[in-house]
């Protein structure tokens, strides 16, 4: 059990760019402060070069992963095969030859392979690896099962890590791991039950949205100024309380990096007159919740009640009050940085936070559960596929420039029971728990032409 638990300290999100190592100073300049730029640069270095937790797997895990794929010999282009099977992407920074999200890290008496924030918070769009974009190709369930088996473990995980490829049970990781910690972050056994659920099907928000948000996560439950909330993924069983204290300054730098990020620009042609008409419609119909854009942008930071937004309530209801109380009473919730005497605890909200839409063209699929593959579907509830699959490639050929989002293949029938779990996770079925694509019907009253105009404008954000 101890070795298996050591594989679990990953997915609690590191908070929520198109920033490469060379582009970082440009992103940092958005604040105008030399001190902030320097801190952001330090944060980028810490984020991309530091192993904050021990390794999960041996050095042999990746080279021998193919032995779990049901093939008789190692694929010829093995690096590409690894990326495709697990939904990983090439690192745009020095990373010892490993994909983004994997990292060399220490093991007992050796060196192995671990994970970092980029496993979930770095993806690819237009064929380009992008730090800060949610990884909507990732099959974290298969990754952890396969590599555990290579290292001689059973591969049986204590709960479901992912129900659909490109989504994760991030909330479940937070609940599970915190159950092993006392308020001062010392370890405790047995695990305290905090209401674990693993059917929340969470899509990863883009990091660059943090600069505008006062509260973060899908429900707006956490103060965006909290640094410690970014550190939840460090709850590896070999991470001591003193390690959290030691690394908190580095995460303050990382936070500055995150809030100085800029979204990628839409790389394809835009019909400017059409977009101008869309801007008018957007400001009339969407800005009250999602804000306005440009030099004098606004963002209302609104949480929309469940009965009004109408989207799947599972994520909202899936994090129990018991977890909120435990988090708020712990080291994570007791952060003091000159804002509140009582720290930065979690808060209960009535629904889901309407996010800023900067770089929205790059962040498909949409809704908190990734149930809608295109902006066309966001603005027309009748256009949303009920059951579909996609290639999980991220190049231009996989991108729908008209509907804006991922090209999908609609499926009429449920997946065959003969499919392997790895293949079944490639199918998104909106009839399953946590995966409804209902709600957010605000665009239904627009004409098809008006929706197209709004979509054209959204390409420019």
UniProtKB/TrEMBL annotation:
Instruction: For the region Disordered, give the residue spans.
Output: 412-443
| Biased composition range(s): Basic and acidic residues | 412-429
InterPro entries per record: Cyt_c-like_dom (IPR009056), Cyt_c-like_dom_sf (IPR036909), Cytochrome_c_Peroxidase/MauG (IPR051395)
- Its signal peptide is 1-19
Q: Does the keyword Cytoplasm apply?
A: no
Boundaries of every Cytochrome c domain copy: 273-461
Q: Any idea which UniProt keywords this protein has?
A: Heme, Iron, Metal-binding, Signal
A Pfam family reported for this protein in Swiss-Prot or TrEMBL: Cytochrom_C
- PANTHER family according to UniProt: BLR7738 PROTEIN, CYTOCHROME C PEROXIDASE-RELATED
Protein name as annotated: C-type cytochrome
């Amino acid at each position: 059990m101890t070795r298996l638990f050591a594989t679990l300290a990953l997915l609690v999100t590191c908070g929520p760019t198109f920033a490469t190592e060379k582009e970082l100073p440009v992103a940092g300049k958005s604040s105008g402060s030399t001190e902030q730029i320097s801190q952001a640069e330090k944060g980028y270095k810490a984020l991309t070069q530091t192993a904050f937790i021990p390794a999960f797997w041996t050095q042999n895990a990746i080279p021998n992963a193919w032995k779990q794929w049901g093939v008789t010999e190692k694929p010829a282009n093995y690096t590409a095969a690894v990326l495709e099977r697990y939904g990983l992407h090439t690192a745009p920074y020095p990373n010892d030859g490993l994909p983004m999200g994997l990292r060399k890290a220490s093991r007992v008496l050796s060196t192995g392979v671990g994970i970092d924030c980029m496993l979930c918070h770095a993806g690819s769009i237009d064929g380009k690896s992008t730090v800060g974009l949610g990884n909507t190709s990732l099959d974290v369930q298969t990754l952890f099962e396969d590599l555990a088996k290579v290292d001689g473990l059973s591969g049986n995980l204590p709960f479901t890590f992912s129900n659909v490829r490109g989504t994760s049970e991030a909330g479940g990781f937070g609940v599970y791991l915190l159950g092993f910690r006392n308020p001062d972050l010392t370890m405790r056994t047995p695990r305290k039950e905090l209401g674990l659920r693993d059917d929340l099907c969470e899509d990863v928000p883009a990091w660059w949205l943090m600069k505008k948000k006062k509260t973060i996560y899908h429900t707006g439950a956490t103060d965006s100024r909290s640094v410690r909330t970014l550190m939840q993924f460090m709850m590896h069983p070999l991470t001591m309380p003193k390690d959290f204290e030691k690394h908190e300054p580095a995460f303050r730098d990382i936070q500055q990096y995150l809030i100085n990020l800029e979204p990628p620009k839409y790389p394809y042609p835009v019909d400017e007159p059409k977009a101008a008409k869309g801007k008018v419609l957007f400001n009339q119909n969407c800005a009250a919740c999602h804000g306005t854009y440009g030099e004098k942008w606004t963002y209302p930071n609104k949480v929309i009640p469940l009965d009004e937004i109408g989207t799947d309530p599972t994520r909202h209801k899936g994090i129990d009050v018991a977890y909120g109380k435990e988090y708020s009473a712990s080291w994570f919730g007791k952060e003091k940085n000159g804002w509140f005497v009582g720290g930065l605890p979690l808060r209960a909200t009535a629904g889901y936070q309407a996010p800023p839409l900067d770089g929205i063209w790059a962040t498909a699929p949409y809704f908190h559960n990734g149930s809608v593959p295109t902006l066309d579907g966001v603005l027309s509830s009748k256009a949303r596929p009920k059951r579909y699959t996609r290639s999980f490639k991220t190049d231009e050929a996989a991108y729908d420039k008209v509907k804006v989002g991922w090209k999908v293949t609609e499926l009429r029938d449920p997946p065959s029971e003969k499919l392997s779990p790895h293949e079944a996770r490639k199918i998104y079925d909106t009839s399953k728990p946590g995966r409804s694509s209902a709600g957010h019907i605000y665009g239904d009253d627009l004409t098809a032409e008006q929706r197209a105009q709004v979509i054209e404008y959204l390409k420019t954000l």
